[in-house]
Amino acid sequence: MQTLQEYKCPCCGGGGVVGGRPPGGERGCLQKMKCPYCDTEFDMETLKSYDEGLSEAPDEMEWETTAGQEWNDGETDGLCSYVCTSCGGEIVCDENTAATSCPFCGNPVVMMEKLAGSLKPDIVIPFKLDKEAAKAGLLKHLSGKRLVPKAFKDENHIDEIKGIYVPFWLFDTDADAQVHYRTTRMRAWSDSEYDYTETSHFLVSRSGSIGFEHVPVDGSLKMADDLMESIEPFDFSEAVDFQTAYLAGYLADKYDVDAEQSVERANERVKRSTEEAFASTVHGYDTVMTDSSHIRLYNGKAKYALYPVWLLNTTWNGNKYTFAMNGQTGKFVGDLPVDKAAAAWWTAGLSAVFSVVVYGVVNLLHGTGLM
User: Fold this and answer.
1) CB neighbours of 222 closer than 8 A, spacing ≥ 6?
2) Rounded-to-integer distance, Cα 297 and Cα 212, Å
3) How far is CA 120 from CA 22, 165, 185, 287, in A?
4) H or E, element range at 352
5) Distance in angstroms (rounded) separating the CA atoms of residues 113 and 118
6) If DSSP codes are grouped into helix, strand and coil, which group holds residue 116?
7) Reduced DSSP (H G I as helix, E B as strand, rest coil) percent helix, strand, coil of the chain, to 5
8) From CA 26, how far away is CA 82, in angstroms rounded?
């Protein structure tokens, strides 16, 4: 009786490549199999080895997440805690810094008597840029943006600027990885009648070890992950041991996502960075795409840190816009409104230019007898 097994095509990734030893066939004999999607032929040993390579164990990602420290006696005596009556956010500042509104949603905050229920940060990166630099950063962010409404630039006023220490969990780890990539090489040529494109498919594997230090995951639900990642990187060489004196004149967001809850995000960042780092060693191909990977982490640990961020809030046409600036490097990010009329004009203009170029190329080909 013939034994059949379905394999995945190494070239196109399609399933349904059915193989097996024909009835009466000698064990070890070669049988050519054809993919029903791309018509590529393989011998059975190639398909088996590829299939075995895909049947790897799941990623192994374990961390030691005992980050942060307990506060020493008297360390929190000069710290005040405020809670937003709307979004529930809790911020911390020294007793000489007044806080009347939430830096995240703008609603009133209520002062609590004493800071409680949080860990002491391990390290902090102090603010290097002041409030004036944040204002200048917004003006620079607005300049040269042709699709931003002119009225927004002219009438824009900043409702509030606050310097906030944002909680981050920093993950260190070493990783052993094995990654498979699908790659292609393309060759094109023409004759008097047709244009041809030949695409050759390859499966490329890489394995090795890589180390990561200070992979940041923000510990605040109020701060969007993409916003915080957009103002990276921070220069960790300027980090110092945490002292409450660094909070003078600034607010500190109290974390509401702990280290254990941040592990999933850290795993995503480590996995993506590993695949990209190994892909950078794959040369000589036109396209490179990750097919599968297996990553094992070890020596994983976390630290609790505060990173400096300037938050700027502005209101226009009844809508609130929030911008963030890295308080150490000055990198500035934030969404802007779009002038629909200007966008339509630019789209029409680009379409017209493209049409003129295509018309000119067609006329040139006709003139040279190639069409």
Assistant:
1) 87, 89, 104, 253, 256
2) 10
3) 69, 13, 54, 47
4) helix 340-367
5) 15
6) coil
7) 25, 35, 40
8) 79
- For the cut 60, the answer to whether the pLDDT of residue 370 exceeds it is no
Token code pair at residue 219: 């510990």
Average pLDDT value over all residues in the chain: 78
CA of residue 215 relative to chain centroid, distance: 12
pLDDT for residue 239 is more than 50 = yes
Residue with tokens 């981050």: 168
Most confident of 90-104, 121-135, 250-264: 121-135
> How confident is residue 178, by pLDDT bands cut at 50, 70 and 90?
very high
The answer to whether 266 touches 178, Cβ cutoff 8 Å, is no
The single-letter code of the amino acid at 2 is Q
How many CB atoms neighbour CB 289 within 10 A?
11
Radius of gyration, CA atoms only, the chain? 29
DSSP state letter for 230: H
> Given the DSSP bridges, would you call strands 158-190 and 251-253 parallel, antiparallel or unpaired?
parallel
